[in-house]
Design goal:
By secondary structure, this protein is an alpha+beta fold. The chain is built from 18 helices and 19 strands.
Length: 693
């Protein structure tokens, strides 16, 4: 999971739309967000947990007051105020667009009415378009980063030392079972234990459905389907109009001196981008066909090996016809001459003996069939090798296409930047209009995807209702197989429990090894982390030769908690790598930390600052001016790829302004509000070329 951008609208302190917060990745994998206490750092942390899971951290005060108060007060009575968070991230080379919305309405009596939240998700395809996934948004998120594990990736650093104090040990054990598929096995066992009861219940008479009620409900959904289809048609019409305007603007740019060459190059790159996306779609279709037609060869290896062994054993036992053939003996009798040259006459004893041998020989059909079988076995081994080679070629082609696509996207962005800052004002104006059209097209495409997602939900609902309406008494035939299913369920439970116990033991051992490694790299104490079978994490020391429990300080508890979180992330990454059957590796995971240095002293602050960028593929830290000072800035600054300031606007007439100096520039932290409301805006820090390099 690679974070791309986060944008807020009327979310807590953030009035209106913020600029998109883009997240660093790669070698400079750290994004720093500076802000004073109360400016909105915790709100940004909770924006992640709210959009993904509709959850909040313990430090998030008054979560029911989610929507910006200024926006509510400025809206007319009865007019809904929209609040949303939009997150874009990438996983397995797929880009996800996630958006959670809610509304607030101020009534005539000044009371505020809040709506329920709605979650929408879209996935970009190789053709550059956005589509809703087949699964529900919550299910998609759960597959990427389960809810029970989110506190290990999004957390409040100031309260990290209470991580184990406030969580029951069995809860931590349950959280960690998500790793290596252990939690999946637990759920499988739980479901299987209910299978016997479920099988019996579904054989019972359900009763006559209220057909008329179902039909009425179906008719309502069909109206919603028609409305959604009309919305999609209207969006497509707007897209068509904007595309025509965009084409006209491009033509105007080509006519202007200075921009013509840039625009021609841009058009060439756009055509290359279109071609690459078409190639990606074609290659992926070929990959699907290859897998659907030949992937069965992967499962034949053990079978063919057993077949070869059985054929060889049969030959050694003389069970297969070999040596003298029946046809050869018949030819000798027909010629009346033995192989040694002696005559074979019908009236002689020699002839009768050879004829008797003929009756004892089997036909060579068994051996011929065996030869053909051996050829097929050898052929399957060869085809399996060719299958893997072709699979590697397809994956290499896909990777190459993505790399080329990335290069083209970078070149296009460079050209757009040049056009935006071109000395000719007309060129800047036309490019600004193009940027506006592109932004609007993206919004329309996303809106189309959201509407399509709703349409799919409606269609699934009406299909389900149709099945219920058409359903008849299908229960009688199931009674025959009930007992067989119950026996199969019981045997499955036994086998899965055996596998689960082995995995839990292996995982706990690997986890404690990693916790000790990280703790030792940060702490200067001789203490050793210990993890019990119930996942109770403690510190021990062995200076006397015997393990003795240690009463850890606040700083040591912070480091211990951070070490556990780092170990969890490492095990997640390792699990993902081992379970990547083919193609690229998707084992990338972010950490978002609010005030990650807590009350640590200078030495530990430096050690933690060194360690945390190595714990995850992406690091987002939210810090105050004092938390960023000296050793932290020294250790992390070279790894920073993106940097932002949270500018707090205070309504107090005597508010004390505050500034932060970065790279020779002064950035405001606290400013006087122009109205009676408090609000926060997000400002991008312009890092010098030296720092960016």
């Amino acid at each position: 999971m690679r974070l791309i951008s986060l944008q807020l609208c009327n979310f807590r302190q953030f009035y209106g739309r913020t600029i998109p917060i883009k997240f660093a990745s790669g070698q400079a994998n750290t994004t720093v967000i500076h802000g004073n206490n109360g400016a909105g750092k915790t709100s940004i942390l909770n924006a992640f947990t709210w959009i993904l899971y509709e959850q909040f951290t313990a430090a998030f005060a008054a979560p029911e007051l989610l929507i910006n108060q200024r926006a509510i007060q400025e809206a007319n009575s009865g007019v809904a105020v929209e609040c949303w968070v939009e997150l874009q991230f990438e996983r397995d080379r797929k880009r996800y667009q996630l958006k959670r919305k809610c509304y607030a309405t101020r009534n005539q009596d000044n009371s505020i009415e809040y709506s329920k939240t709605k979650l929408f998700i879209l996935v970009s395809a190789d053709d550059g378009k956005w589509y809703p996934p087949l699964e529900a948004p919550e299910d998609v998120i759960e597959q990427i980063l389960p809810l029970s594990l989110h506190q290990y990736f999004f957390f409040d650093g100031e309260r990290i030392d209470n991580f184990f104090r406030n969580k029951k040990n069995n809860t931590i054990a349950e959280d960690t079972k998500e790793l290596l598929g252990v939690k999946v096995l637990d759920r499988a066992i739980e479901h299987l234990k209910k299978a016997e009861k479920t099988l019996k219940e579904e054989l019972q008479a359900i009763g006559d459905p209220q057909t008329q009620k179902l039909i009425t409900e179906q008719q309502k959904i069909e109206l919603s389907i028609e409305k959604a289809q009309a919305q999609i048609a209207a969006i497509l019409n707007q897209v068509k109009i904007l595309e025509a305007k965009k084409k006209s603007l491009v033509s105007q740019l080509q006519e202007l001196s200075g921009a013509d060459k840039l625009q021609q190059l841009k058009n060439k790159l756009i055509q290359q981008e279109i071609s690459l996306r078409k190639n990606l779609v074609t290659i992926r279709n070929e990959l699907k066909q290859l897998l659907s037609r030949q992937s069965y060869l992967v499962f034949l290896s053990s079978i063919t090996s057993q077949g070869k062994k059985k054929i060889e054993a049969s030959r050694q036992q003389n069970l297969l016809s070999a040596g003298v053939k029946k046809e050869f003996i018949q030819q000798l009798l027909n010629r009346h001459q033995c192989l040694c040259g002696n005559p074979l006459l019908p009236e002689t004893t020699t002839y009768q003996n050879v004829a008797a041998l003929l009756s004892q020989l089997d036909s060579n059909s068994v051996e011929v069939a065996t030869i053909h079988l051996e050829a097929d076995i050898n052929s399957s081994s060869s085809r399996l090798t060719e299958f893997w080679q072709e699979l590697d070629r397809k994956q290499a082609d896909i990777n190459h296409q993505h790399l080329e696509l990335h290069k083209i996207e970078q070149e296009l962005e460079k050209i757009n930047s040049k056009l935006r800052s071109y000395p000719d004002g007309n060129i800047q104006k036309l490019q600004a209009q193009l940027d506006g059209i592109d932004d609007r097209l993206k919004e329309l495409i996303l809106e189309q995807g959201i509407t399509q997602q709703q349409l799919n939900t409606y269609q699934q609902a009406t299909h389900k209702l149709s099945q219920q309406i058409d359903k008849k008494q299908l229960q009688e035939a199931k009674q025959i197989v009930t007992q067989k299913r119950i026996r199969a369920t019981q045997e499955s439970i036994t086998r899965i429990i055996e596998v689960k116990n082995r995995l839990e033991q292996q995982f706990r051992e690997s986890l404690v090894t990693k916790v000790r490694e990280i703790f030792d790299s940060i702490s200067f104490t001789p203490y050793i982390p210990q993890l019990s079978e119930n996942y109770q994490l403690t510190l021990i020391e062995q200076t006397s030769g015997q393990p003795v429990p240690v009463a850890a300080s606040t700083g040591e508890n912070q480091i211990l908690s951070l070490s556990f979180i780092g170990a969890i992330i490492d095990r997640v990454r390792e699990w993902s790598q081992r379970n990547t059957l083919m193609g690229f590796d998707s084992s990338t995971f972010p950490i978002v930390m609010d005030s990650p240095f807590g009350s640590l002293d200078e030495i530990y602050r430096r050690q933690v600052a060194k360690a945390i960028p190595q714990l995850a593929n992406q690091l987002v830290i939210l810090v105050t001016k004092t938390q960023w000072r000296q050793e932290v800035e020294t250790e992390i600054d070279s790894l920073v790829g993106q940097e932002y300031i949270l500018v707090y606007h205070s309504p107090k007439p005597d508010c004390q302004k505050d500034w932060l100096k970065l790279y020779g520039n002064n950035y405001p932290l606290v400013q006087q509000s122009e109205n009676q409301f408090e609000y926060t805006e997000v400002m991008t820090v312009k890092r010098s070329e030296k720092h960016q390099a």
